[in-house]
Amino acid sequence: MDKPILDIKNLVVEYRTDDGVVQALNGLDLTIMPGETHGLVGETGAGKTTAGLGVLRLIASPPGVVVDGTIILDGKDVQQTTEKDMESMRGYDVSMIFQDPMTSLNPVMTVQDQIAEVYELHENISHDKAIELTHAMLELVGIPAERGNEFPHQFSGGMKQRVVIAIALAGNPKLLIADEPTTALDVTIQAQVLDMMKQLKKEYNMAMLMITHDLGIVADICDRVSVIYAGRIVEQGSLEDIFDRTRHPYTEGLFNSLPNLTDRQQKLKPIKGLMPDPSNLPSGCTFHPRCNYVMDICSKENPPRVYRGESHYAECHLYNEENIMKGGVIERD
Amino acid sequence: MTNPLIEVKNLKKYFSTSSGMLHAVDDISFSIDKGKTLGMVGESGCGKSTTGRALLRLLEPTGGEIYFEGQDLAHLNKKEMRKMRKELQIIFQDPFASLNPRKTVSQTILEPMVIHNMYASNKERQEKVLEIMEIVGLAERLVNVYPHELDGGRRQRIGIARALALEPKFIVCDEPVSALDVSIQAQILNLLKELQDRMGLTYLFITHDLSVVNHFSDDIAVMYLGKIVEISSADDMFLKPMHPYTQALLSAIPVPDIHYKSERILLKGEITSPIEPPKACRFANRCAYAMDVCTKNEPKLVQLEPGHWVACFLHSDEIEE
Amino acid sequence: MNMKRKSPRKKGPIFEVARRLAKNKSAMIGLAIVILLIVVAVTAPLFYSYDEQIIKQNIGNRLQSPNAENLLGTDALGRDLLGRIIYGSRISLYVGFTTVAFAFVVGGTLGALGGYFGGIVDNIIMRFMDIFLAIPGTLFAITIAAALGSNIRNLILALAISSVPGFARILRSSVITVREVEYIEASRAIGASDARIILNHVIPNALAPVIVHTTLNVATIILTIAGLSFLGLGISAPTPEWGAMLSDGRTYLKTHFYMSLFPGVAIIMTILSLNLLGDGLRDALDPRLK
């Protein structure tokens, strides 16, 4: 079997501020194989972005502190790597793209110079050669090469995000971390960008961590899915596992909160309550105050991780090894 | 017979910019029946938010008429309009920017009642504040809390409470759930729906999220570059979209269902500039079916089936004068 | 409602700012010195008789080094230096605060009107401000002093007028920012009048940068007064003024250096504490630096 490109084990990250300790990640486990697209789904404050930044060792410190856990990126322990080695890994082994394309680009540099910079840094080639590669890359992400000498403000939002993706791909990374890459874009532009990403993924056989809140995007582009709540993965499995064999009540709640396109009369069933305060998490299962199936034990003990198969699990007191196979414990099955 | 509460005729809103007139809203007409919801969808820059604001005269319309219960809002003077605001309210997208950070929850909800001199005494108004807070699902203990201490969902409830304080008949909802997480989004949508049933409210629901608009609206208008390109009942719009833009827009929705496989229509290019647009179909440069006529004339919004209007030369030859 | 649940404390934005300010050590030192200065200035008449000890010459006691009787020594006319420095703080703070209060009200009003209404109103106001801004403050004060006589009232007038444009510009730009925020539109939507919107919603949210400017501006004014008096163009003898005292001490710099040192220290302490406080306020009022 292949070695995973990314293997995160029991990652615990805290943000220590004067106002208290925010527990951003509480034992996150995540494995991504080469060429696989893994969706990390959750709501604001669940720790999605912190997980992405952790892989690149870009968590701002202070206030961020990695308390526990290991991150193995392409066989190297990120925590033990020197800053210099880390710099050469960023953009080369792993790249990250962010939600807002505008703030990721330098406004006073032409688009092609920004992309060429990556080639020059990582491949030690002349500027002219780098520009040549840049033009090929621009065409690849769907921007005419002759627009390369324009500045970011001359591009629309969708085009800027393409440039950002081009910069991320220029280092030919083995893993691309995409943090809500299309959230700031219009639907038709989002469709274009997602379509392009799907093609690039195929072409480069690149692994991808897709951080998003949108289950529609997950359905469209991901192979495997992790659902994150309050800094911990509550359910993980293949796309089919999560969508067709949903086990965790929170995952169910996410699906039920979405309007149904084919049945517009169907009433939305929102998850009650609010995201917990990350500096004061509920005891036991952190989801228990919002859960429709809450039992006495939920507030007392941390839920066990119960496997439905080799790669599908849920962390929930509702399940034991038998009933997780059959399902039928929650309404959505 | 229909009974429109709001009837908009030939509404225009232009902005002057250094490179020419920006046609944000360009001659659109629609009406909304009492107690119904018109969903207005489109992508950023299509003029949907400007429409909502021009309708309430938060932006002065460049032209056109806005009839509310038969009275033309566009020609009221400033003072008359201020009085009229009691009937017409708006809920904003950004639950952070739309609340004054220096006002407590009760101060924010109280202010509209004070301005319009509602109720006999301050005590009565205070009681009303608590009543409204309960309706929108804000706990009584939050009455003296400042917005920065609350999350987006609760803030949005304050915004809704402020609008309800005046007991309006009509509310413009400008992307009221776009800034919220899905689980909270569903709570707010259910609340808005419940309020509509309970108080007989009429909504103009502006959004870029097609699955939300489908769920929420009775009728849907699709806007593109300042124009309404298609308008029909929500069912019709999703079952048989006729305008090529509507078709592309609907096909682009990411559907959270792995068995739902639809052929995605990918549009070429991006929205063109709304500054001094030529007399032509504004979608022509991205349209897969574009014909000669599309770049020479502007299609007219024509009723093809009862209640289903489309502005496209594929379906009708009528030209906008 | 569940009464056992504790009601959240009412923590307004002002409380938040105060909390952040309290965490800033240098700002708290600045604040402590400013408060000390104000207390000393206000209570001075309890300890010293202005006519007997501050103004009246006592040649027999001239040029005393610091001793038990005169803690900081005496000046060339035998007056107690400590007393004169304390009374000097009354002058400096009085001129500083009055000038800034005037400039704040006039400049702030003009700036708020210009910023809120924009267009031609804004244009007229701001072009006027530009004209005033083109005249250097110190030069303007010297001119006024030369033309109308150098007394405290004229000085305050001159300095206030030259401070007005600064306040107008700052409040204007801050009002323009606030004006664009959605809650202003929300107020218009509920039918609030312009006056109500400006007073209730715009001004309270636009004041933060002006408060910082006010603190720093008081320091500038005090420094300008001292500078003018040092040159003999500001407040004249026998009124105890720090700049003038510093100047008086120059003659005796070689033998009695403290005559210049102590007023100098007083000026530095005042300016420094106001600047520390101003910087602290700027940080505390800026939520991004939380």
Number of DSSP helical runs of chain A:
11
The low-confidence runs of chain C, each spanning 5 or more residues with pLDDT under 50, are 1-9
Strands of chain A, count: 12
Q: Element order, helices and strands of chain C?
A: HHHHHHHHHHHH
Mean residue pLDDT of chain A? 88
Q: Report the sheet with the most strands of chain A, covering strand number, pairing sense and barrel closure.
A: 8 strands, mixed
Q: How much helix, percentage-wise, in residues of chain C? A: over 70%
Fold and architecture overview:
- Chain A has 333 residues and is an alpha/beta fold.
- Chain A has one domain (6-93, 173-326): 3-Layer(aba) Sandwich (Rossmann fold).
- Chain A contains eleven helices and twelve strands.
- In chain A, the strands form two sheets. In chain A, strands 6-7-8-3-9-10-12-11 form an eight-stranded mixed β-sheet, with helices on both faces.
- In chain A, helix 5 crosses helix 6.
- The model of chain A has no long low-confidence stretch (mean pLDDT 88).
- An eight-stranded mixed β-sheet of chain B has the order 6-7-8-3-9-10-12-11, with helices on both faces.
- The mean pLDDT of chain B is 91.
- In chain B, a hairpin with a 2-residue loop joins strand 9 (219-224) and strand 10 (227-233).
- The two termini of chain B are 29 Å apart.
- In chain B, helix 3 packs across helix 4 (122-135) and helix 3 packs parallel to helix 5 (152-164).
- Chain B has two domains: 4-87 and 168-310, P-loop containing nucleotide triphosphate hydrolases (Rossmann fold, 3-Layer(aba) Sandwich), CATH 3.40.50; 101-167, no CATH class.
- With 321 residues, chain B is of the alpha/beta class.
- By secondary structure, chain C is mainly alpha-helical.
- Helix content of chain C is 73%, strand content 0%.
- Chain C has twelve helices and no strands.
- The relative contact order of chain C is 0.14.
- Chain B binds chain C through residues 53, 56, 58, 82-83, 85-86, 89-90, 92, 94, 97-102, 104, 111-112, 115-116, 139-142, 144-146, 148-149, 159, 162, 165-166, and chain C through 1, 5, 7-8, 10-13, 16, 181-183, 185-193, 196, 200-201, 204-205.
